[in-house]
Amino acid sequence: MRNSVLTISALLALGLGAIPAANAVTISLVPEQGAIQAGATALVDVVASGLTDSDNAGAIGGYDLNVAFNSSLLSWTATTFGSGLNVTGFGDIQDSHPVTGSPRVVDTAEVSFDAPADLTALQPNSFVLFTLSLTGIAPGTSALDLSVGSLTDEHGNPLVADVQGSSLTVTPVPLPAAGWLLLSGLGSLLGFGRSRRALA
Prior knowledge:
Layout: H1 2-17, E1 25-31, E2 35-37, E3 41-49, E4 60-69, E5 74-81, E6 92-99, E7 104-112, H2 116-122, E8 127-136, E9 140-153, E10 161-164, E11 166-171, H3 177-199
Parallel strand pairs: 1-10, 2-11
Antiparallel strand pairs: 1-3, 3-8, 4-7, 4-9, 5-8, 6-7, 9-11
């Protein structure tokens, strides 16, 4: 009896080991630069990578992703979609909008109308899903967090995703050299005025 249980357990373990695991797709936030000045705009790419030409994670057919950031440091101004889900020009559905709250979240979704075979054959292994334009409001460093609402392959089946966030620093706008010169001149005038009154 004990040998039968061990034999069945070993066969089950071998059988389960033969089932291919789903390939994980990596979704990363990639800022164009690590720091911007207040008032400037940063571009943050949302990049999909780790796609293969196999049946597992061969292509992305749709997604609903959320990017969160500190709304006291950054504001969302626009979303530009990549062409990775519209490889034949047949079209897709796109939506991107902010969700109120703190931290601020931009919810972005896209679904491809392309045929699964076209997505698998023509979609690159790594590509930009979309790009967020974020404007610096005040100095500080904001985490850029990514969460997956849904991610599907070319057939509409769920995909496993590894997500990689990032951060973006907003620096104060430096005072121009002419401003320092003006301030030093005003300081000299104030000092000269005081010394003149003291002599009078």
